[in-house]
Structures are given as C-alpha cells and as structure tokens.
TrEMBL record:
<dbReference type="InterPro" id="IPR052016">
    <property type="entry name" value="Bact_Sigma-Reg"/>
</dbReference>
<dbReference type="InterPro" id="IPR001932">
    <property type="entry name" value="PPM-type_phosphatase-like_dom"/>
</dbReference>
<feature type="transmembrane region" description="Helical">
    <location>
        <begin position="143"/>
        <end position="162"/>
    </location>
</feature>
<feature type="transmembrane region" description="Helical">
    <location>
        <begin position="174"/>
        <end position="195"/>
    </location>
</feature>
<keyword id="KW-0472">Membrane</keyword>
<feature type="transmembrane region" description="Helical">
    <location>
        <begin position="90"/>
        <end position="107"/>
    </location>
</feature>
<dbReference type="GO" id="GO:0016791">
    <property type="term" value="F:phosphatase activity"/>
</dbReference>
<dbReference type="Pfam" id="PF07228">
    <property type="entry name" value="SpoIIE"/>
</dbReference>
<feature type="transmembrane region" description="Helical">
    <location>
        <begin position="62"/>
        <end position="81"/>
    </location>
</feature>
<feature type="transmembrane region" description="Helical">
    <location>
        <begin position="35"/>
        <end position="56"/>
    </location>
</feature>
<keyword id="KW-1133">Transmembrane helix</keyword>
<feature type="domain" description="PPM-type phosphatase">
    <location>
        <begin position="235"/>
        <end position="453"/>
    </location>
</feature>
<feature type="transmembrane region" description="Helical">
    <location>
        <begin position="119"/>
        <end position="136"/>
    </location>
</feature>
<dbReference type="InterPro" id="IPR036457">
    <property type="entry name" value="PPM-type-like_dom_sf"/>
</dbReference>
<keyword id="KW-0378">Hydrolase</keyword>
<keyword id="KW-0812">Transmembrane</keyword>
<protein>
    <submittedName>
        <fullName>Sigma factor regulatory protein</fullName>
    </submittedName>
</protein>
Length: 455
C-alpha cells in the first residue's frame, strides 16, 4: 500500500515534459474560466454574515466591505473577457483584497463584541476560508493555493495581534492559531488536486489525440475498403444493387464480382467473424485470394471454397468466415451455388415468390471437411431474382427486442416481389425496415445484394 501511494505521488508530481507544458498552456484558459465563474458565484455566501450573530447587529457597518468584495469579484469576471491585464495578476489581486476585506469584517465583529463566546463563534466562521483556498485548485497553477495560504496566514496573524487583550489572555494559543493549520492543510490538499488535475488533463489530451489519430486511420481504412467494393460497373447479363452498413467505421462483410470468359460471372459474398479492423483486413485478403486464384477455381464453387478454407486455416488460423459463391453460366443458362456456412440464398423465379434454397456447407477456416461444400445447380431465365445477405440483417433487433428473422425477411421480400426493378425493391425493403421494424441502424455488420438476370 505504501508503494502504491509512492507511485501515485511520483506520477502526479513528476516534472512535466515540454509536450505536457504545451498541453497545460492550451488548457489553462478553460480552467481559469472555471475558477472565475466559481469564485464569483461562491462569494455571495459572505452576505450570509448579515444575518448571523454577531454581525446581524452591525450589518450596516459591514455591508460596504461585502459590497467591496462583490465589486472586486465582478471586476475579475469582466477582466476575464477583456484581458487588458494579465488574468493571473487580477486573480491574485482580487483574491488578496477580497479576502482581506472579509477579515476586516471579522476584526470589526470581535472589536464590537469582545467576548470569549463570540471569539469561538468567529473562529468557526473563519473555517469557511478553506473554500477560497480550495477554489484555487480549480486552476492548473499550484501556486494559487500556496499564495492564498500565505496571505491568509498574514491576515490571521494580524487578526490575533489585534484581538482585544481580555480575549487574548483568556483564550488558548491553540484556539488562536489552529486555523493556520487548517489553511495550510487546505492549501496542501489543493496543491495535490492541482497536480492531479494536471496529470488528468495531459492524459485526457493524449488520449483524445490518440483517438483522433485512430479515427483518421480508420477513415483512411474505410476509403481503402470502399475502393475494394465494386463501383458503378456494368455486369453482363445481370443487374444488381447492394446495401451495406456497419456499426463500426469498417467491417468484415464483403462482396465482389468475378468476371469470366464468354460473359459468365461469379458473385462472391463473405462475412468474416468479428468486427472492426481485423475482420475488414481478412475480408480484403479474401478478395485478393478470390481475384488471384487459378481460373478453373472461379468456375467451380466447391474448389474455390476448398482453397479459401485451406488458406484461412493455415495462414490465418485465428479467423473464420462464412461465404457464398454464385457462378452464373450464361452459355448453358445455369447457376452453380456454393454455400460455406452462410445464410441460404433466397431466389424468386420470374413471377414466383421468393423462397430459400437449402444448401450444404461448412464454415471456412476450420478444415471441417474437404471439400467444405456441396454444389447445387439450377437453371436460370430472364427475370429471375436472387437475394444474398449477411446475418446482421436478420439478427438485429427492433425497439421491442424482436429480430426480423428469416421468415420476416421472406415475408418482406414477397410483399415487394412485384417491384419494377432491383433498385426499387431495395428502396422498398429499406423503407419498410425503417418504418415498420425500426431497423434504420444495425447492431452487426449488415449487407445484402440483389441480382436479376437480364438475358
């Protein structure tokens, strides 16, 4: 425990570095403003002396002194905004003269009512002077607390020296001088507060700078990730639209088109486990892997998933992902589907309802089985629509704690299956998700892609 106290005081009383001094200089005006407002508001407490004994009997005599305190504190308040004189000088001058005026009020009181009971009563009132001493601790300069203790010591010694003889002789030295211990104890406590505030200020500034730097890095990472997504491109024989949203700046949901010979195309969508930077990086790596694997893998979902499974398990063994790959063969008018632990493909043959297509496949990154998926093939015709998505869409909760779920998604799609095109379908889905389900934001990375066969 002693060592803990030693470490604590060593940390707060260490000599600030040049960078910390610069930070303190930047923060100083804000804390000076805090002190100025605080001391202006709290000085009105002195007017309570007009209503307590023995001052209630001489209120008209002490009122000018109290008004003088108000004028000085008001000048300090104005000076903070005009700054025609160094604010630090005004703070110390205002404090010295104001507190001196209040001590004169107490001297007036003991001279007017020189009794021992009044002496002890005034001593209890004088305890309240720890307030102006501690108020200096709202600033970043520890000397304020020390200087206030020095001039309060001078005021109090003068007060004791001018005590009526009968009180000086009948009261103990402890009762006369113990307030000096109170003032210096308050000053010491105030100094500790100031140094602790200095440390907190520099720490908070450093943290805010680190956060700002991280946000800049995240914004850069977002721009890089956005550049990896397909832009406004034309895919032969397909129209498409997509939506993506992440509760973080970047996420692990990703899709890409793999354009092949004879106008055929592959569509790859993945959901990397986790959130944030690491999952986004893995998703970007998977894009590179899909783009650079041999051509024969791009036309065979099972072989493509087997390759990704192996790379995730061996090269990135802390990560796993679900994925779905659609290979559109427009020569033979067929679609080959490979699903590795991903939500099922939802499709609607032209003029029909949307429905799920069940497929078998293991999540990537664990080498659970080889190959990790079983392909499924189905014919395609013009007007067929396909909906692939990540599970953030169906797992996010509305205001009542209910998830949309697969059944809710299917019902939603079928309510709008007669939308004229995929963009209109997307807009209808998003509008209803927001207005009916309250899902304008999602708790997890969310993405969906709507495709329609044109040929």
């Amino acid at each position: 425990m002693t060592r803990s106290f030693y470490i604590y005081f060593k940390e707060i009383f260490h000599k600030p570095t040049k960078q910390e001094w610069d930070i303190l200089k930047l923060a100083e005006p804000r804390f000076d403003k805090e002190y100025t407002y605080s001391v202006f508001l709290t000085h009105f407490i002195v007017y309570s002396l007009l209503f307590v004994p023995p001052f209630a009997e001489i209120r008209m005599e002490i009122l000018p002194y109290l008004l003088g305190v108000t004028i000085l504190r008001f000048v300090l308040l104005l000076q903070f905004y005009t700054k025609s004189i160094s604010i630090e000088k005004v703070i110390y001058f205002s404090g010295f003269v104001s507190d001196g005026l209040i001590y004169l009020v107490f001297l007036k009181g003991i001279e007017t009512f020189p009794t021992l009971s009044h002496f002890y009563l005034l001593n209890s009132y004088l305890m309240s002077f720890i307030i102006p001493i501690l108020l200096y601790s709202t600033r970043l300069n520890p000397w304020g607390c020390i200087l206030s203790a020095i001039y309060f010591t001078g005021f109090h010694l003068s007060y004791i020296f001018l005590l009526p003889i009968e009180i000086a002789e009948r009261s103990s030295y402890f009762s006369q001088y113990f307030l000096l211990l109170v003032y210096w104890g308050s000053a010491l406590l105030g100094v500790i507060f100031v140094y602790n505030k200095r440390k907190d200020t520099t720490d908070m500034y450093s943290l805010s700078e680190e956060k700002r730097f991280m946000l800049q890095e995240l914004e850069l990472a977002k721009r890089v990730q956005d550049a990896l997504f397909p832009g406004n491109i034309k895919i032969p024989n397909l129209t498409f639209t997509f939506y993506r949203k992440s509760p973080n700046v970047i996420g692990g949901d990703f899709f890409d088109f793999v354009q092949l010979r004879e106008g055929n195309v592959g569509v790859f969508l993945t959901d990397v486990a986790g959130h944030g930077i690491s999952s986004a990086m893995v998703a970007s790596i998977m894009k590179v892997l899909v783009s650079t694997i041999p051509y024969r893998f791009k036309t065979a979902p099972a072989r493509l998933m087997d390759y990704l499974d192996d790379r995730l398990a061996n090269d990135l063994n802390k990560y796993h992902a679900s994925a779905i790959y659609l290979f559109f063969d427009f020569i033979e008018k067929k679609l080959t589907i490979g699903n590795a632990g991903h939500p099922y493909l939802i499709l609607a043959k032209k003029g029909e309802d949307f429905q799920e297509l069940e497929t078998q496949g293991a999540i990537l990154g664990f080498n659970i089985k080889v190959p990790p998926i079983s392909e499924k093939i189905l014919p395609i015709t013009k007007g067929d629509r396909f909906f692939i998505y990540t599970d953030g869409l169906i797992e996010s909760m509305d205001h009542n704690g209910n998830c949309l779920g697969t059944e809710g998604l299917l019902a939603l799609l079928n309510r709008h299956r007669n939308s004229e095109n995929v963009k209109e379908l997307e807009n209808n889905l998003l509008y209803e998700l927001k207005t009916k389900f309250g899902l304008d934001t999602f708790s997890d990375d969310t993405m969906f892609l709507i495709l329609e066969v044109e040929e």
